[in-house]
Description:
homodimer; lysine biosynthesis (chains A, B); 26% strand; 418 residues; VC0802-like; alpha/beta; globular; 6-stranded antiparallel beta sheet; 8-stranded mixed beta sheet
Amino acid sequence: MPLLVMKFGGTSVADLDRIKNAALKVQREVERGYDVIVIVSAMSGRTNELVGWVEATSPMFDAREYDAVVASGENVTAGLMALTLQEMGVPARSWQGWQVPINTTSQHSAARFLEIPRHNIDQKFAEGMKVAVVAGFQGISPEGRITTLGRGGSDTTAVAFAAAFGAERCDIYTDVDGIYTTDPRITSKARKLKKIAFEEMLELSSLGAKVLQTRSVELAMRYKVRLRVLSSFEDTDESSGTLVCDEDEIMESKVVNGVAYSREEAKITLVTVEDRPGISAAIFAPLAEAGVNVDMIVQNISEKDYEDHPGSVTDMTFSCPVSQVARARKAMEDARAAGHIAYDELVVDTEAAKVSVVGIGMRSHAGVAARMFKALADENINIKVISTSEIKISVLIDRKYMELAVQALHDAFELEKP
Amino acid sequence: MPLLVMKFGGTSVADLDRIKNAALKVQREVERGYDVIVIVSAMSGRTNELVGWVEATSPMFDAREYDAVVASGENVTAGLMALTLQEMGVPARSWQGWQVPINTTSQHSAARFLEIPRHNIDQKFAEGMKVAVVAGFQGISPEGRITTLGRGGSDTTAVAFAAAFGAERCDIYTDVDGIYTTDPRITSKARKLKKIAFEEMLELSSLGAKVLQTRSVELAMRYKVRLRVLSSFEDTDESSGTLVCDEDEIMESKVVNGVAYSREEAKITLVTVEDRPGISAAIFAPLAEAGVNVDMIVQNISEKDYEDHPGSVTDMTFSCPVSQVARARKAMEDARAAGHIAYDELVVDTEAAKVSVVGIGMRSHAGVAARMFKALADENINIKVISTSEIKISVLIDRKYMELAVQALHDAFELEKP
Lengths: 418, 418
């Protein structure tokens, strides 16, 4: 029997009516001849309530107890979904993480999958069960404690089950109807993609597109799990949504398939840094320890007069989220006070934003960067920092030009055209 | 290390403040040198919410899914209680039913204990844990599904753990401060008992005193678990509340220790029943099948003229809750229509109440019934039906005299005196 994994997020199972709506989508796939594994999140709002109780009880909480409390939300939805399906005449049962068992590491609240044995669920499919409803986001540690997977855990659970059970596809039902060339709130020319390659989706997720968690896309790419993103709130059929798949499945790809952005970026420059072997490590190790997510890094030779500095010096620039600037500043000042690094000045620009173009076609097409820079120059947008990967070019610009830059790039690469 | 079981019901853990209040009581016992097993209910209102969702989803629900959903309430409280204790510096961890494991039968929503192995929890006590917080009301079936125990399940869980771990005592914290000679709302002379024998408590629970579930008292009596009932909402010490214990622990017992009542009773009489061997079974089997809880039964020879009935005839009277009268009537009419029984008339009196006196001293004292009947006669209260056990005498009377009867009996047996 071909098998499908279907995942419903918190807003898709927010109340009994929505659970029923989701169950109807499951029933339709069963009628098409699939065995189905359904992965459910907690009803929206429940997890926040449970987290709130834990944090109010114990600010420095024991993560094992946190996990035991928080995982209960998914268990409720799993039971209710199984009952809803049964009520429709679909043979279904719920599975909690420990019942499968979903074996994970002991890193509570950030556990990783170790193994998902198929035996128990396969046996029930063999006995006539058509749908296994599995509580997402959770697992069991080698010590027999309940674990959770951290943010976006239910997406990751869905992909892991699709991989373990060799599913034909993993459908992620959510509150948007697919992946767009860019955010439709910024340009009405944004177009829904029929297909997108894993690598592109990975870049877009990392760049702030919230539809899929980066980790679930990574896992899908590694195990070649075809992912489909589609809406819980619309009538959907086999061709709905966006398929995230191997690039071999995409016949002809454009050079650029998406424009992403990240609004709250800061640029931090350490001016006149003593340049010596190991200086990068001396700067970025304390930033990492302080939990600063450093993104773009540029080391440049400033044009100013270095007469006062007889040794070799440089300027070091990096970007990070605006919310982490205070932490970054403290880490740098502490490192300087401890004598680990030396610099004249720390210059912070909190008015930046990042805009990126993403496309696997870039690999075989030259001139993408030039085309991007020209489009921005035509709008008189100054580029502060540039960073590139094999399939992505990102630039840091003044935040006030962000929307304009996204629109200009969307036009320049003709993303409105199929 | 001496061990104590402490159980907190839903109102005692209704919010984070109350959980903290309960945890302070646990901490005090740890400071006194006890290892403690804490049994918790769901935060009050949560179980009803979950049950409501299940019933709205599926009126004829799969009890296995019902149990999986409903048991989640206790898991939340267990985690929060463990975190609260940790925050106070008390080494604690939570245990869900399957982690202990609390092995039960597969009768979902009405499961019975099979075995509670001590190994896992004992090992953690040996490693320095002082408090095991166990989710009440739940267990795991031989098939690995979550089970629940039905009404009052958390009390029963507490007693079962006290038996399995050889606890010195099982303290049931609730919203009343002990067991009274009668309901204080009916007479201000009601007096809190320091001690009460298992058998007496069992009769009082069966008779409608809601403080302890009958099943938990039965289990305590069988395993000689000393139970203490005391208030969550008052300062309590070693001598607080009421101890439910073996009668050997009670030096001198009064003849009567309590007056109980049940307000909504109905009396049903089958008039002129054909009297033959097997007639009782023919009447009461259909009632049992219809789920009617028949309580008192009297078979009497009526004084009326039996001329019309050449064979042997009798009247059969029984009592049941008013809410079950319709079901009882239908069961009798169906049985008559099917030719299984014959009677002239079915007379229903829905204006009855039951009043009972209970005391183990009755066994060795004659004249208790006479004293009871005289007290009622002095108030001109007519007795409709009488039923007795070794340690209890119950009478059915007009409902309007119920309070008066309770007061008269409380006075007659001098229950206000210690």
